[in-house]
Amino acid sequence: MGKLTIDEVKHISKLSNLDLTDKELIKFQGQLSKIVDYISQLSEVDTANIEPTSQTTGLENIYRPDEVKPNSFSQEEALSGTEQIKNGYFEVDAVLNKES
Prior knowledge:
By secondary structure, this protein is mainly α.
């Protein structure tokens, strides 16, 4: 594939919500380029006669009843350690936003 550009590394760091210094951008440019080159080797594998597979063990989903265990916290107990509550849930900063 070739070497990633600094702009591509900046874009990746923005998507990852990482503030990188110029020194780190250069460091990760080389590292990420090696990773992309390594992964691109997969496109060289001949898969023409290979049947698509989602898993190979033959196992199926095993479900269990959704039961409240006696040692579980109540909602009030779980939320008692924070003041950042909204509508009965923990309130956290957005992970994804329109700028990403």
